[in-house]
Amino acid sequence: MEEGTAGDVSHTRFAMALALLREVKRALSALNPNEIRELARRPVCIGLVAASEESLGRMETYFAPPHFSAERRARAARLLVRGSASGCPVQIYESSLLRPRDAFSFDPDSPDTCVRRILRAREDLALPLARNFYPFRKQASHQLIRAIAKENALFCLATALPDVLPSFLSIGWAVGEFGSDAAFLTMNQIRMAFYLAAASDRDVGYREQKSEIASVVAGAFGWRALARELVGKIPFGGGLIPKAAIAYAGTYAVGLSLERLYRLGYGFTREERRVVYEQAYDHGRQIAGMLLEGLRPRKAG
Q: How many CB atoms lie within 10 A of CB 188?
């Protein structure tokens, strides 16, 4: 490549990066981490009902495990109420007991099943439950990651379908104008970082998560390069579905890396991100296909 041509390419890339950063900054002006922080601090308690003192103790140990710090375990213990407490939004009964219709069953041989059922039924409590009770964290975080990855895939489809976009952008968090898909996807991944930190009982905010935010913004360029390489390898053809699948896979990989960072203290290596991305891409194609089918106008029959 001639020197002049290389310089032109470098200048073009710099200009594109600068434009994207401006768009992301504008989009982030409407994203308020305080709202997420307050949602995670919403008061929540769990009523526990068991057939014996021993069973009740096992339930309490599960929801306030010994590896919790003393402070966090004490906080969780204060939110576990023995007996059916009308003031607690979540009621859990040992599986050997009859329970009210709106209560949940706890099987000591499969306790995670109870957690999954609660999170499916009470999505509105996912953040405070995850923040206060360790067993909810990983499941709630993965639920959030899948939901936001799906939103990003949907956005990529909706931007190509003008009749759909206005109603899609009417939801509360999608405000402002986005000059490119990359700006919206990056903003939504930063929003995901706020949610995952809140679910992990970590500090939430631009200053508190500046390294994670910098990583997400930098990744906006890296994922596009990886996406181009991946699309070239997979004989799936062009069009909307691969584009949406890339958005899904990129967001999913970023989310899993952040979840591990908050849970273990370190995220994915570059190779691990690539592996997760490639695995998530296949699932993203399926999700994108179903979303696109739902967006297409129905023919009058």
A: 22
Those residues with Cβ within 8 angstroms of residue 100's Cβ, 6 or more apart along the chain or in another chain? 84, 91
Q: Is 68 exposed, middle or buried (0-12, 13-18, 19+ CB in 10 A)?
A: middle
Across the chain, where does the E strand assignment appear?
46-49, 80-82, 90-94, 104-106
CA 298 from centroid of its chain's CA atoms: 31
Q: Going residue by residue through the chain, which has 301 residues, state the pLDDT in tens, using 9 for 90 and above.
A: 555 555 554 555 556 556 656 766 776 777 889 999 999 999 999 999 999 999 999 999 999 999 989 999 999 999 999 988 788 999 999 999 999 999 999 999 999 999 999 999 999 999 999 999 999 999 999 999 999 999 989 888 877 665 555 455 444 445 445 556 777 888 899 999 999 999 999 999 999 999 999 888 887 766 665 555 555 555 544 567 888 888 899 999 999 999 999 999 999 988 998 899 889 999 999 998 888 887 665 554 4
State the residue for tokens 């099987």: 107
Strand order in the sheet with 46-49: 80-82, 46-49, 90-94, 104-106
| Radius of gyration for the alpha carbons in the chain, expressed in angstroms and rounded | 22
What's at 58, amino acid-wise? Answer: R
Global pTM value? 0.83
Token pair recorded at residue 79: 């939110």
The β-bridge relationship of strands 80-82 and 104-106 is unpaired
Q: How many CA atoms lie within 13 Å of 199's alpha carbon, on the beta-carbon side?
A: 31
HEC string of 95-123 equals CCCCCCCCCEEECCCCHHHHHHHHHHHCH
